[in-house]
């Protein structure tokens, strides 16, 4: 992706269904669960880069013995650091005789992560702090296991400000700046309430104090706690948590915005943000890995019993389309097919752009996430050319003009030529991400293969999405221009990103989107600047309405122009300055209709269409415009609405 779009988070949960001795006997290690957690997280490492956290809850620990643990790290290479550190501790304890790995019960008693419930979280922070304290899982401790709570998730609540105000109205003192803390405290509040009610009921019945914890653990009603906690939430989320007694849950937002999958056999219950890691780590077939139904919560009790219950009425699904375009790993069979289809869907636009001449064009992609779409793009180009050749051969036959020279021209020449024209220096990119404000360095993230492009050629580069256009102008186009093509065509498998996201991806400031900037420029050029203030007043008015009545007034910015007109203005805006090269630049975007045709099933496309799946989305987009118009920076969904 040519702009620095922030990754969302990923989760991994491993719940062992057998005693540790079973895994020691069968797999020769009591750390089978820890190993599986590490692999699930490593297979999703593309989703989180700046911090990780792992947690463990042990079942049926004797009173007075620790039972819940976590490690978090936001340093470079935190994944390797955390797991290497735990393995080092394990081996050191074995050498010192603190426990015997041949006796798994001693591992459980002494090693922090020798438990049955293991949780892992990958974080790519999009706001707030970037230290270990901001990494999941979050832990709410108590000397009652049934009031102790550990929570992690892949989510963003659009109404975090309002949720914090709700806590304040109760008399609580929330920690602002993170909706994770808000979610933790909301669930924790209802857990406390439920626990207190049970305690008073049992105490009044004359139950002895020592017996009360066990009875509370048996009677605790986790489904009700989840229902009460989630009632005010507006956002996209996949949240997992464990109570100190060993009851755990995984829940998914009612619209299915954020992904969640699970795998079950007689040894393990496992959850992950992506399907393929579960298939790979547990050597499972595609049919054995299931999607958690939106609006439901899977609960696994400490005794291993499992249930799935709905905490919200069923709603139309709106899964994040950026999962399909960019985030999820391309080795998922459905993702792979859809990304190839997205590439192929651009063929007609590109063919027209290059002047219908394959012989004078080089086709490439901008690494690395666009590679799968590029294969589909080439397939589509070749299919088009085969159809042309067949038609021309049939015409020549009908006219009696089919000659060897004609066949040579049709079959041996003018075929789509795919090349590795662009290279990305990952090490350079990593370095720059740690050193802000290095514009000159950014221009060298990409490099080219020299002498591939000949005089008079068009160079076509496929990317998965174009958000801000900054990298395109400051780096990619400058380096592509060094090949001296007659024309550079950059095509995006995603449509024009016109509206902010508020459900997990950090695309929140409207004024940074190149498509929005282009529409504003066109309004000013057309003498329609008054539209900007008109939309501003409409957005402010919208924010005064009840949340369920709000609509997206920012659509008014785009109404006067076609997609092609906005794309043409984007092409002009990203044209690199101060170059000797004077060729043409054209930026092509996927159409909404083609995107929906490529993605089978529901398609959450609010970034492109402005059609948000929740009331919080409409509040966010209107407030984002108000903040842009008033010159204020920052994420609109960080504020009370």
UniProtKB/TrEMBL annotation:
Keywords per UniProt: Glutamine amidotransferase, Transferase
InterPro entries in alphabetical order: GATase_2_dom (IPR017932), Ntn_hydrolases_N (IPR029055), PRTase-like (IPR029057)
Ranges where the Glutamine amidotransferase type-2 domain occurs: 9-303
Signal peptide (UniProt feature, chain positions): none
TM spans (from-to): none
GO molecular function: transferase activity
PANTHER family associated with the record: AMIDOPHOSPHORIBOSYLTRANSFERASE
Name under which the protein is recorded: Amidophosphoribosyltransferase
Native species: Oceaniferula spumae
